[in-house]
Design brief:
Two copies of one chain form a homodimer. Helices cover about 40% and strands about 20% of the residues of chain A. In chain A, the strands form two sheets. In chain A, strands 3-8-4-5-6-7 form a six-stranded antiparallel beta sheet. In chain A, strands 1-2 form a two-stranded antiparallel sheet. The first copy, chain A, has helices at about 5-15, 25-35, 40-50, 65-90, 100-105, 110-120, 165-175, 210, and strands at about 55, 60-65, 145, 155-160, 180-190, 195-200, 200-205, 215-219. Chain A is built from eight helices and eight strands. In chain A, α2 (about 25-35) crosses α3 and α4 crosses α5 (about 100-105). By secondary structure, the first copy, chain A, is of the alpha+beta class. The interface between A and B is medium-sized, with 19 and 19 residues. Chain B binds a DNA duplex through α3.
Chain lengths: ~220, ~220
DNA sequence: CAAATAATTTAGTCTTATCTAAAATTTATT
DNA sequence: AATAAATTTTAGATAAGACTAAATTATTTG
């Protein structure tokens, strides 16, 4: 199927924002992620739904179909392989390559990407440490990381916990931390390993011990 | 200036079709080259004229401005450098790379293209033998070739002659050969070096001696 | 659980790039 | 040079992707 750049970008956005437990993405979160209006997103979701690239119900959000997931994953593969090329072959730095890879990922040619993969030596991770899906779309999920592995400035979604005893969970809910919440890392304290972050525009601090048990997905 | 893909493709088409003596390109020839309608071309020429990328007068055709020429040449540079990469680094064959380079040439990053140039070892010619403009847009004009150097199937425009004595020119006009005419090569005769080609859907044959003195530009 | 708030969709516009059909202009021909 | 033919432009539509403002549906809160 021939997709436009816009359609491809929406699929990628939905994949990025997809998190457990329901794997459903809201209109507003897509709009915020892409920097466009909610109305534009609705229009596109209708179109992607008709093409059966996503499952979409009015007012209920969207999730990727099998086809949509395959296409979005292949875009991630292309994006990350190109990033490796830009750093490894052309000597660019990891912070210079994102925007260029954002354009390169849309080049349509399976042969090209398979040859690029071979040329680069079948790398498993991109320069940011994110895993590169193989030609079949399989990859080791490393996009799920511990909160302690985050870097200041990053935005992420809370997707789970590594411990589930009641006192821990109660502590989290008191702080306003819940699965599905979007967070933004402010910084790591060098002395006590605590992490400052914002949730719902509220600033708060979590101890290193707590942060270690919170799983997030970068967005 | 931020140009759309369509605008860039029009500039490239105009550069390709530009030939002596007047360096002016007609609406219809652009339409034929791009496979679009004359009306669409007129619309775009108006827009490019307003942006001062071309000089355009209604009913009189278009020619590239200095800026337009610079941009179009830089697109040719990108296209040919990417073709070298695809063949030299990825091992593709010269006939597989054109369409992919057609997409890659639009990636916007000066840093990228300069690094790619260095990575490839500052090649002077692409896999088809066409010269690659340097970062300043300079290149050895080899797109002008003798008719004897053509290959069956190629289409070209007659852009000049290497000899200009009267009997030669009279011979040409009798055959229907004139500057600005579009020709298509049918084949080279192995015994007498004569060349068969079509002009205005008329099939004709030119002797090797004559062909040697006709300069063409591939399209 | 009803009212208030938030999220989402619909309706109506705009821009870019395309098209066809009709009108205008230029070029060729008799 | 007048008319015919070819070329080019204008006029009016369409589709994709975006927007704002208004309407609708869902969620939260008192």
């Amino acid at each position: 199927m021939e997709l436009t750049y816009a359609e491809e970008n929406y699929l990628k956005a939905i994949l990025r924002l997809t998190v457990p437990p329901d794997y459903t993405v809201s209109t507003n979160s897509i709009a915020a992620h892409l920097g466009s209006s909610a109305a534009s997103v609705t229009d596109m979701l209708k179109k992607l739904g008709e093409k059966e690239l996503i499952l979409y119900q009015r007012y209920k959000g969207a999730s990727l179909s099998e086809t949509g997931n395959r296409i979005a994953t292949s875009l991630v593969r292309k994006h990350r392989l190109w990033e490796v090329f830009l750093v490894q072959s052309l000597g660019m730095t990891w912070d210079e390559v994102h925007d260029i890879a954002e354009e390169l990922e849309h080049i349509k040619s399976d042969q090209l990407i398979e040859r690029l993969d071979a040329f680069l030596g079948y790398p498993k991770y991109d320069p940011h440490g994110d895993p590169i899906p193989n030609a079949k779309g399989k990859y080791t999920l490393r996009s799920q990381i511990q909160l302690t592995e985050s870097v200041p400035g990053q935005e992420a979604i809370v997707i789970g916990v590594r411990e589930s005893d009641n006192s821990f969970l109660r502590h989290l809910s008191e702080k306003g931390v819940a699965i599905g919440k979007t967070i933004k890392i402010i910084g790591h304290d060098l002395y006590d390993q605590s992490i400052r972050l914002t949730i719902d525009n509220q600033e708060l601090s979590l101890s290193g011990k707590v942060a270690q048990n919170i799983l997030i997905k970068l967005i």
